[in-house]
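Long-time lurker. I teach an intro course on protein structure, and each term I like to show students one example going from raw sequence to a predicted 3D structure in token notation. This year I'd like something fresh instead of my usual example. Would anyone be willing to generate the tokens for the chain below so I can use it in lecture? Attribution to the forum is fine with me.
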Amino acid sequence: MTHTHPEAQPPLTPAEVEALARTAHAGQTDKAGRPYAEHLHAVAEGVRARGGDAEQIAAAWLHDSVEDDALPERWLHEAALSRRTKDIVLALTKRAGEEPEAYARRILATPGALLVKEADLAHNADPARLAVLDEATRTRLTEKYARMRALLGLTDGKRTGQYGKGGGEAGQGAPGS
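-- Reply from a regular --
Happy to contribute to a lecture. Here you go:
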């Protein structure tokens, strides 16, 4: 039996990445009880709206797949995806016991990851999504998301979407800042 090296495989199309993510998260729901694929779709659309490229959109569809054990990390390493897409997914994968500061540093150090995380945080913090949660959970999550935005330098005056395809990487200043 011959093992096909990932680079030898044709790359997954955007439709294939979406289908894989939807299948991997089938049956999962978010904190509000909604199908998890709705969150993935919203993050992918958020990345697209912020000027993200195809690799970042693919990472948006897969951003929680390893963390949620929907897909094994080995699958990600062997998948017919670009190195950059894989790096973004791994950067966005929280590790057990990891401090938020370390998580934020990894995102900032990974080209393309900040824009995907910004879209993720925007959907997670959507007031309409949070409104259906109990007050204690809503307050806890609102504070958690605000803290991560601060750690990532995502304040109201500095949005990665202003930078277009560059993805607002670390080291790029916002216009006029």
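Some talking points for your students: The chain is about 55% helix and 0% strand. The radius of gyration is 16 Å.
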